[in-house]
Amino acid sequence: MTRVSHGLPMAPYGIAYRRVRRLPLHRLPLAPAYWQNRYAFLPRPSVDAMHFFNGICVAKIPWVSSIEMEFPRYFGRVTRAARVEAFERMASEDCRLLLPLSEAARRHLLRRTDDRWLAAVEKKTTVFAGGVRVPDRALAARDARRASSSPPFTIGFVGRLFWHKGGPAVLEAVERLRARGADVRLVVVSDLSPKSHIIEVDASEVARMRDRLRTTPWIEYHADLPNEEVLVRMAGCDVFAFPTFDESLGWVAIEAIALGLPTVTTNVFAIPEIVENGVEGIAIELPRDQDGRWRGITDLNPAPRPTYAETHRVLVEGCAAAFERLLDDPELRRKMGDAGRRKFVGRFDEPTAATRLAELFRGALS
Questions:
Q1: Are 261 and 267 in contact (CB under 8 A)?
Q2: In this predicted structure, what is the pLDDT of residue 28?
Q3: Stretch 132-151: mean pLDDT
Q4: What is the strand order of the sheet 263-266 is part of?
Q5: Which residues of 185-208 are buried (b: 16+ CB within 10 A; e: fewer)?
Q6: CA angle 278, 284, 290 (to 5 degrees)
Q7: How confident is residue 310, by pLDDT bands cut at 50, 70 and 90?
Q8: What are 15-74's pLDDT values in tens digits?
Q9: Whole-model pTM?
């Protein structure tokens, strides 16, 4: 292999990668997601293999695809011919590896693969999440915070989709602790994006929340920051809050455990693979469907379904109880933080991930 497209530092393993461009026909308006993620090339790229993210390759070239959740990426009405094409390409000899980011994503894929393609698809499907690099500056900030026992007790929250990720529940839970006399501070990084498949919030509510976050003295609020600055601010916290309603993997949870932050989250989809309840953090149990996703997602689950408001109350109670427990038990915070750091180094650290990917490439593409 001389050139393989990917983003990890693969040069030490004798693998180079480069970006290959195509004509942007997928940018046509109203194009279903399948056509956006269907790759054809003319002429054939001068590489040994292609590595996509959620992509299907129809060119006659060896290819690999990392899979976030739904694969092939339909997200709309597609023809039967398109569905057949996608699975035939996945089962073909050209497709060498399918790399779901989690065990949950692997199950999600195989449950939806027709029997005629299942054996061929399953044998080339291997979980590989990828790698995360944590800057030395953030690690140093984390060490400094852990060495200090000075108040206030600080909780971090990061997420563009503030309502989707459970931000209002975190805010209400912190208010409860403060009402009981606890010296608690909240760091929020979010541009308060109001729309998701979970909930849509009107502009007036977004404006009220933005004003509240900006003017509350015990909240440090940032609408947006470079990723390294986000990690430095996370590192200065005692606990990370991520009570999300739905998630394909949860990269910010990986960043939290990388920093040795005990993480308060939920039990949806792949999150338990990152934060095991009672080990790297505390998980709030939500009602889940057969894929492990929150049962309140309208497009996926029949009625009766839990509402956002009902689940918000569950998250408030769960966050408040978890924050109070971690506030009162510094040793538990230390143990959970250490466990998270060990999991990160063993699975998600960039050198670990690059070594694993090189092994996968050599086995599938040699």
A1: no
A2: 60
A3: 93
A4: 219-222, 184-189, 153-158, 239-242, 263-266, 281-284
A5: bbbbbbebebebebbebeeeebee
A6: 105
A7: very high
A8: 888 887 766 565 565 667 888 899 988 888 888 999 999 999 999 999 999 999 999 998
A9: 0.94
d(CA 289, CA 269): 9
| Strand spans (E) along the chain | 38-39, 50-53, 56-57, 63-67, 95-100, 153-158, 184-189, 219-222, 239-242, 263-266, 281-284
Q: Is the model's pLDDT at 149 over the cut of 80?
A: no
Domains of the chain: 11-131+352-365 (no CATH), 136-347 (3.40.50.2000)
Amino acid at 349: D
Query: Six-digit token pair at 66?
Result: 């990392």
Closest CA to 1 of 20, 18, 14, 19: 14
Residue 183 has phi, psi (to 5 degrees) of -85, 90
Beta bridge partners of residue 51, listed in sequence order: 64
* Nearby residues of 46 by Cβ (< 8 Å), 6 or more positions away: 3
